[in-house]
Design goal:
- InterPro entries: Metalloprtase-TldD/E_C, Metalloprtase-TldD/E_cen_dom, Metalloprtase-TldD/E_N, PmbA, TldD/PmbA_N, TldD/PmbA_sf.
- Pfam families: PmbA_TldD_1st, PmbA_TldD_2nd, PmbA_TldD_3rd.
- Belongs to the peptidase U62 family.
- The strands form four sheets. Strands 1, 2, 3, 4, 5, 6 and 7 form a seven-stranded antiparallel beta sheet that branches. The protein has a five-stranded mixed beta barrel with strand order 8-15-16-17-20. A five-stranded mixed beta sheet has the order 11-10-9-14-19, with helices on one face.
- It starts with a helix and ends with a strand.
- Helix content is 22%, strand content 37%.
- The chain has two domains: 88 residues, PmbA/TldD superfamily (PmbA/TldD fold, 2-Layer Sandwich), CATH 3.30.2290; 228 residues, no CATH class.
- By secondary structure, it is α+β, with helices and mostly antiparallel strands.
């Protein structure tokens, strides 16, 4: 059944059984992922998925249901399931079917240059990255991965309050992880690109990025335990910020799962730190004009010059807090309920380049990689103890590679101790970004 006809019949049926307000959210996605190993295609996954979720308000409660098939049987099932789920809700939280905003930002997230790319061209990209890596270094003995992926999709919201929004997007990504063996030790590196056209995919550049990162780790050693000034490189800071991003959710705060509850207006970070959620960021991987409740998105400062300005809200959490939604009500999938999620979340860059950030450090560390983030970081307390790799700083210069160390601290304390923010803002195949930052002291366990 065609979408508009299905929606009209679904809304009519829902009203018959007592639903006062109704909404559908639909997603249509396709993706192609190609992985190669030793000059041959190892993985070729082509996926197409379609799904539609229904929300309906009855007796001031909202029920949910979803389907992957658009037919009359699905209409009966959606209405029945949503009514059953609504009547079983015991929570007193008020939820909403949104009437929409007057204006929505015109967002471009679909790139015609990526349309109808032949699979052979994508295979050649993957094979080319592997081939170039081997030609760049005779130390390459294996690969931790070598793949190219293309994805495109459209989604939309239609409700009985007159809202009818839709968007489409697509993107191409490619990466290679060469593994070098030098003196019986293995070192890996990561090269990647996020592209809007094939012209942006340079297989030699990607391979070289991976090789150089692997070579930079050769002959790493530990350092004495102690408290060091630390420069957290942009990619490592992204992984740390991603781990603790949930503390900025109003839903987490209202459930007692964030120490930032009721901290709006307070200084929680160094005056050097401004944390932004920007759904309108050009070429951002989470750029969007409206959230999954139909609220118009906007650029939001969570932290401005060290002060907590706001948490991220959806309609439900905003109503509980007596504020306006920040436009961060999103679903994990069409089958999921609305939660709170960031869009393009990043620390605003400063003015010093990387060399300028390390230049004033007599003895310290550059951290390029954290490991064990899932087990070694507590997103509620902010405490972390993580295996790390990087470089030693001496007399303001990067010197030898460092490994076999553990960095321990607290995320909230660390925010207050950031004394410099670099200019090298980076989004490493992620909707979370950060420049490199300098922290005036973290505990290091080494030799």
């Amino acid at each position: 059944m065609e979408l508009n006809q299905f929606v009209n019949e679904l809304f009519d049926k829902a009203k018959e059984v007592g639903f006062a307000e109704c909404e559908v959210y639909y997603v249509d996605k396709e993706s192609l992922s190609i992985g190669v190993y030793k000059g041959e295609v190892e993985k070729y996954n082509l996926n197409n998925s379609y799904g539609l979720s229904f929300r309906g308000k009855i007796n001031d409660k909202i029920g949910y249901s979803y389907t992957e098939i658009l037919d009359k049987d699905a209409i009966e099932m959606l209405v029945r399931s949503a009514k059953e789920s609504a009547l079983s809700i015991e929570s007193e939280d008020i939820q909403f079917i949104y009437e929409g905003d007057k204006e929505y930002k015109d967002i471009s997230t679909y790139y015609p240059e990526l349309e109808n790319i032949e699979a052979d061209k994508l295979i050649n990209i993957a094979l080319g990255m592997e081939k170039e890596a081997k030609e760049l270094s005779d130390k390459v003995t294996s690969f931790g991965g070598c793949a190219v992926s293309y994805s495109s999709g459209s989604y939309g919201i239609i409700n009985t309050k007159g809202l009818n929004l839709k968007n489409k997007s697509n993107i191409l990504t490619a990466y290679v992880v060469p593994i070098l063996t030098i003196e019986d030790k293995m070192y890996d590196g990561f090269g990647y690109v996020v592209a809007k056209s094939l012209d942006e995919v340079d297989v030699k550049k990607i391979a070289n990025q991976g090789i150089e990162e692997a070579l930079s780790k050769v002959n790493g050693k530990s350092v004495e335990s102690g408290n060091y000034p630390i420069v957290i490189k942009n990619e490592a800071m992204v992984s740390l910020l991603s781990t603790f991003a949930g503390v900025f959710s109003a839903d987490a705060a209202q459930k007692g799962l964030s120490l930032l509850k009721d901290k709006e207006g307070e200084v929680i970070a160094s005056s050097n730190v401004s944390l932004v959620d920007d759904p309108h960021l050009e070429d951002g991987l989470a750029t969007v004009g409206f959230d999954d409740e139909g609220v118009a998105t906007k650029k939001t400062y969570l932290i401005k010059d060290g002060k907590l300005e706001t948490l991220l809200h959806n309609l439900k959490t905003a109503n509980k807090a007596g504020v306006k939604s920040t436009g961060n009500g999103f679903k994990g999938s069409y089958a999921s309920p609305i939660s709170v999620s960031p869009t393009n979340l990043y620390i605003e860059p400063g003015h010093k380049d990387f060399d300028g950030i390390i230049s004033s450090i007599d003895k310290g560390l550059i951290i390029c990689d954290f490991a064990g983030l899932h087990s070694g970081a507590n997103s509620i307390t902010g405490d972390f103890s993580l295996a790390a790799k990087g470089f030693y700083i001496e007399n303001g210069k990067k010197t030898f590679p460092v490994e076999q160390i553990t960095i321990a601290g607290n995320f909230f304390d660390m925010l207050k101790n950031i004394d410099e923010v670099g200019s090298d803002l980076l989004f490493p195949m992620s909707s979370v970004g950060s420049p490199s930052v300098r922290v005036n002291g973290l505990a290091v366990a080494g030799e």
